UniProtKB/TrEMBL annotation:
Pfam family, one: rve
Protein name in UniProt: Putative transposase
Region spans: Disordered: 29-48, 295-333
NCBIfam families: transpos_IS3
Species, as recorded: Kineosphaera limosa NBRC 100340
Length: 333
């Protein structure tokens, strides 16, 4: 069994890490170690109006006869009733079939294999991009503008955006192509499964450039966290309006916002640096300057800091979409 192997590995790590490495569910591991002990089930007393064994056998014979074996219970019940025969209720027919192992779905059912969870790891700017489309309210009811945004997941830098009246795969292709012309070609581009994201023009562009495509699983918003977080920062900004008077007004607002976002917004996920400083490689120098300022403040007033030396926020070593395996993280350390 796998339980002894999990216990042996857990002596060097933990139960959780051992189960993750061996592909064992923790719940199954704990249940196998302490199985539940169940007493004998209480037998339900037979109601006085229940069918006799002979009557149940007659119902089962009718339901499994050549005439009704391929028909639904409702069809069988109604046909017999039209002929002046009532054997029992439809629910009783179902119970008799279940008791004899003859109930179940007989039609062919569509089966879909589970979608593979995307796992993307970036250790420097320019490796992994993420993009998405969101709606901005226009001047009238039912009028929406489509905002396309593509960003670098390591630096959070917005490498490209465009605002249009509608969603179109060719617009997305042009935006990605222009962004790659300025910032270089990434190793992979991640997006959800919208029509533009999975369109043939976008797929062909990435294929021609040798860029890996990655897509979120259906109805799993956590598979595209960086784009979702960027849109939240945009729409929760105090200056974000309820609606825009025109496409030109919306574009002017986005131009000002993304300039601020890239060059002034201190992002908590990258050590409170701006995306531009991380993307262009100046964040290390800025962190050293921050540390010098903190050291000077500590030397001037050591009583204000206790026994701990103040530390500037650290820069991230990696960014990912869905945490990769421990082996991949060890290789990047």
């Amino acid at each position: 069994m796998i339980n002894p192997t999990v216990d042996e590995l857990a002596e060097h790590t933990s139960i959780k890490q051992a189960c993750d490495l061996l592909g064992r569910a923790r719940g199954s591991h704990y249940r196998a170690k302490k199985p539940r002990v169940h007493g004998p089930a209480m037998r339900r007393p037979t109601p006085p109006n229940a069918l006799t064994d002979a009557e149940q056998a007659a119902v089962l014979a009718e339901l499994t006869s050549e005439r009704f074996v391929d028909k639904a219970i409702a069809q069988t019940w109604a046909t017999l009733l039209d002929e002046g025969t009532y054997l029992c209720s439809m629910s009783t027919m179902y119970r008799i079939l279940r008791a004899n192992g003859a109930a179940g779905e007989r039609r062919r059912q569509a089966t879909h294999p589970p979608r593979k969870k995307p796992e993307l790891l970036a250790t420097k700017p320019g490796q992994i991009w993420s993009w998405d489309i969101t709606k901005l309210r226009g001047p009238g009811r039912g009028v929406w503008f489509q905002l396309y945004v593509v960003l670098d997941i390591f630096s959070r830098y917005v490498v490209g955006w465009t605002l249009q009246n509608g969603e179109d795969s060719q617009i997305a292709t042009t935006m990605l192509e222009e962004a790659m012309g300025v910032h270089g070609i990434p190793e992979a581009v991640h997006a959800d499964r919208g029509t533009s994201m999975t369109s043939k023009p976008v797929a062909q562009l990435l294929l021609d450039l040798g860029v890996d495509r990655s897509h979120s699983r259906p109805r799993v918003s956590n598979d595209n966290p960086f784009s979702e977080a960027a849109f939240k920062t945009l729409k929760y900004a105090p200056v974000f309006p309820d609606s825009f008077g025109s496409l030109a007004d919306a574009r002017a607002f986005c131009e000002a916002f993304f300039t601020y976002y890239n060059h002034e917004h201190r992002h908590s996920g990258i050590g409170l640096h701006t995306p531009a400083s991380v993307h262009h490689g100046t964040a290390t120098q800025i962190r050293a300057h921050r540390q010098a300022t903190l050291d000077a403040a500590s030397a001037a007033h050591p009583e204000r800091f206790g026994n701990r030396r103040p530390q500037a926020p650290k820069l991230p070593k990696a960014a990912w979409i869905n945490q990769p395996s421990p082996e991949a993280l060890i290789q990047t350390a």
